[in-house]
Task: structure prediction
Amino acid sequence: MKTVIACLIGCCLVAPASAQTLRERLKERVRNRLEKAPAPQATSSAVTSAGTFTFSVESGGRTRFYKLHVPKKLDLSKPAPVVFAFHGGGGDMEYQSRDDRYGFIGKSESEGFAVVFPNGYSRLRSGKLATWNAGACCGDARDEKIDDVGFIRDLLIQLRGQIKVDDTRIFAAGMSNGAMISYRLACEMPGTFRAIMAVAGTDNTLDCAPAKPISVLHIHARNDDHVLFDGGVGPGARDPKKVTEFKSVPATIAKWVKLNGCKADTTRTLEVPGAVCNVHAACNGGVRVQLCTTDKGGHSWPGGAKPRSGEPPSKALSATDVMWDFFRQ
Result:
């Protein structure tokens, strides 16, 4: 047994190409399994009660999918606040809607807002391994120039026929690549979205000239190993060709402070061991730009859970709780 273990360790040390080949074979096996997975099963029934539903919508010549959660305490006879929750690159709507990872559905139930989980672009029928075209990033959605802003516009038209939407309280929140598409929506749909929250993903839009101010909340770990706090691609990025040289967090905040006409002064809104939040509150139109940083957590959703190996998310704050506190102000 010791000989076998020594051999395995030695092989790993002297034959990294073999280890890489093994990883590639495993990735190919997973992809083959996902390619055989069926497409999401969309419902055609009207929304007449609380629950979680899957819908499809035609957009840009493609059938796109999204999940909708309606909480029990929501009065369907009245306009509802709506949060769009965008998954990260390589994720999908099913993963983003998992409450043990992100907590959107639990927060929806306690606070009474509807949640939409759009699915990014994927070449797979199942919609897995999806990405968003957020400008300079990411993956197939960027490379194939998918009109994801058009998708959200089309989704919202359909959503308004499914539930009553409070047009003054529509928000976007996202993780990583999902944060990046949230920034693009802030640039191109500021009259639709009242505020956005971006976690672990900076503003990598190609063009940005919002017609009106919009509130921005950004949350980022200082030791993020994928989207580096000070800019660039970190070692945690799986395939640098599928991403970009990410803009830094300071550059992102400075951009939105300028776009929103905010004063440079900030107010500390949160200070706990491992995390701080500072807000620019003196901005045009009464909007705000807030930055929360955690000391640790890497590339993850603070307060959530991470399925793969690596550094666990920071527990110094809950991104979902901070999000709703910011949105409802």
Summary: The first strand starts at residue 51 and ends at 59. Residues 1-17 have pLDDT under 50 and may be disordered. The longest helix spans residues 16-36.
